[in-house]
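INFO  loader      accepted 1 record
INFO  loader      residues=226
INFO  predictor   begin
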Amino acid sequence: MNSFKWHEEAEKQWDERANFWNQNSKEMWLNGSRKTIIPFITQHFEKESFVVDIGCGDGVGSFLLAQAGFHVTGVDLSKEMIERAEKNNQQVNLSFQQADILSLPFQDEEIDGMMAINSLEWTEVPAHALKEATRIVKSGGYACVGILGPTAGPRANSYRRLYGEDVICNTMMPWEFEKLANEQGWSVIDGHGVYKKGVNEQQLGGLSTELKQSLTFMWVFLLRKS
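INFO  predictor   done
INFO  writer      dumping tokens
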């Protein structure tokens, strides 16, 4: 019997990565792969609505979302991440809680929207994680979900599974996530790709969405709950 406890190991490893993540996250949100996400959300989410940032890490994204006019709670499995988030991000309409995505501390249909950027891939069964996230969002509410694309370097975190080793990264393709979301009552409203240097975005216009997704570092979805 496999004694590997996925989420306990995930918490441990993300605690260990907290310092490294903290050194890079602000740059990612302001100038890097995540710089389009907050402006994208503001186009769709109603201002002053209650949004939960699932897998908030050190809280930079949560802070920027709160600055943009939303009431935000950031949740993360890692105690170290939450401690850094609370220390470094002070905002009246912002709070943080340590919590597992499989057991979120909110009532059914309590929140207006959620943000989950590269967090569903770090769960043992992403379908279960999405089901729990879906539970807390109001009918008609929105979700912004970022899924790592095929060209994302972090996929190396899941490579050792090919040897039958236990890992805490469960990769999926953007088109797989879209099917999963549809099956759980979400409709895709909008989306865009984040690409590495070398991809000529002017040449992407004639490609299907799936082909565009196949070239991405990350695909950012905007979903609406039925």
